[in-house]
């Protein structure tokens, strides 16, 4: 394998781009994939459309925060394990800081009904629509793949559960093995310079499962509230499929009935988590800070994201090797089409249905989408315009 030489500037660029995404990526995990696609595939060309789609498919299949794992995966592909860590750090730190500060002054803020939050939701509509348009054109070029995507949409809308998503991906993979096994798709692509070895991957996966087994045992033996908290957040990050929207109720079950946090405090943080950019898993930073101050916020953040990091480091070396096999290639062709369907379903419910409630909402979404897709304005400009539009919408009456 070709050795890639990296400089401080390369690592600084990985961190800076991830940090910028962490500051501007509003709208939840599905919107994040749109922001990543726009930045890493369209603008930077760090990955091809196919490599990015395969990475998204892999991360959708893994438990944990899919968008964060995609970001970590891009960082690893670009700069090894250190690049993955820097990509994670840049994308995660902004919302962690905001939610820790919010937790320290939870009784002073009231942002639930702020109009700018609605503007940010409309930004998410534009970004996700743009991502679906780009990915759909590349990944569903024929009637067979269009059919797979449509069936995935229908399944996700009628049976909205985490296991439906996993089932769709598994079924699509089996279909792809039979339908696309011998297909010469997209021609020969340049190899990714992935420096992770299978040994590192195996160690990472072993550590993931070891912690999952050992932490509850140590928590029961020990009287340490810190260890108990770490175990709760680690398990929440390790066993949740479907991303941040699914982990929030799981965390409520972990900490409200046990008395670590009141229902009122939990709901206040829940509202704040919807308003900040970056991954929804950073809600753990808020909870940890309410429970045990700033050190608790840092501990909770590390604990809930550690499984995601271990899983993506553990699976990427094997994914890189397996995707070269014809049967695996065929599986990913179909899985990529299914992922487009999953994105469309998430675009409709909850993004569209909870955001576009009036004609003026649709008008603003259409303007932002056009500026992003046709005028090629950068995402951060769209975010600013969305905030301004959200503030002005209540004063616009037809």
TrEMBL record:
Q: Which residues cross the membrane?
A: 12-35, 55-77, 84-109, 115-135, 147-180, 200-221, 286-319, 331-351, 363-396
Pfam families named in the record: Chromate_transp
The way this protein sits in the membrane is described as:
Multi-pass membrane protein
Record carries keyword Transmembrane helix: yes
Q: Where in the cell is it found?
A: Cell membrane
Q: Per its UniProt entry, which superkingdom is the organism in?
A: Bacteria
- Sorted UniProt keywords: Cell membrane, Membrane, Transmembrane, Transmembrane helix
Q: Which is a Gene Ontology cellular component entry for this protein?
A: plasma membrane
The terms under GO molecular function for this entry are: chromate transmembrane transporter activity
Similarity annotation = Belongs to the chromate ion transporter (CHR) (TC 2.A.51) family.
The family database entries (NCBIfam families) matched by this protein are listed as: 2A51
Put simply, this protein is called Chromate transporter
Taxonomy, top ranks, is: Bacteria, Bacillati, Bacillota, Bacilli, Bacillales
């Amino acid at each position: 394998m070709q050795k890639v030489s990296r400089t401080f500037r390369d690592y600084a660029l990985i961190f800076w781009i991830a940090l910028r995404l962490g500051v501007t990526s509003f709208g939840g995990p599905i919107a994040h994939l749109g922001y990543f696609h726009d930045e890493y595939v369209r603008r930077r060309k760090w990955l091809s459309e196919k490599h990015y789609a395969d990475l998204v498919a892999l991360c959708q299949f893994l438990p944990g925060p899919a968008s964060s794992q995609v970001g970590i995966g891009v960082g690893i592909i670009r700069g090894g394990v250190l690049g993955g860590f820097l990509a994670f750090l840049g994308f995660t730190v902004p919302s962690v800081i905001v939610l820790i500060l919010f937790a320290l002054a939870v009784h002073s803020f009231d942002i639930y009904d702020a109009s700018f939050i609605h503007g940010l939701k409309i930004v998410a509509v534009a970004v996700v629509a743009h991502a679906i348009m780009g990915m759909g054109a590349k990944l569903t070029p024929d009637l067979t793949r269009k059919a797979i995507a449509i069936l995935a949409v229908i399944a996700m809308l009628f049976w909205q559960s985490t296991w439906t998503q996993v089932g769709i991906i598994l079924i699509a993979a089996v279909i792809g093995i039979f339908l696309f096994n011998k297909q010469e798709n997209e021609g020969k692509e340049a190899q990714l310079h992935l420096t992770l070895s299978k040994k590192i991957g195996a160690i990472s996966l072993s550590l993931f499962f070891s912690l999952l087994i050992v932490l509850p045992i140590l928590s029961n033996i020990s009287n340490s509230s810190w260890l108990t908290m770490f175990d709760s957040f680690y398990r929440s990050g390790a066993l949740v499929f479907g991303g941040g929207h699914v982990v929030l109720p799981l965390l409520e079950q972990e900490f409200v009935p046990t008395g670590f946090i009141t229902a009122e405090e939990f709901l206040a943080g829940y509202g704040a988590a919807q308003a900040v950019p970056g991954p929804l898993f950073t809600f753990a930073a808020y909870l940890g800070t309410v429970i045990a101050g700033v050190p608790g916020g840092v501990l909770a953040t590390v604990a809930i994201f550690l499984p995601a990091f271990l899983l993506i480091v553990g699976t990427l070396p094997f994914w890189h090797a397996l995707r070269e096999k014809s049967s695996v290639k065929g599986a990913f062709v179909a899985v990529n089409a299914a992922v487009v369907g999953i994105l469309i379903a998430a675009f409709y419910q909850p993004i569209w249905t909870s955001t576009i409630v009036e004609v003026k909402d649709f008008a603003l979404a259409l303007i932002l989408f056009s500026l992003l897709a046709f005028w090629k304005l950068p995402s951060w400009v769209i975010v600013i315009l969305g905030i301004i539009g959200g503030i002005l919408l209540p004063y616009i009456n037809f």
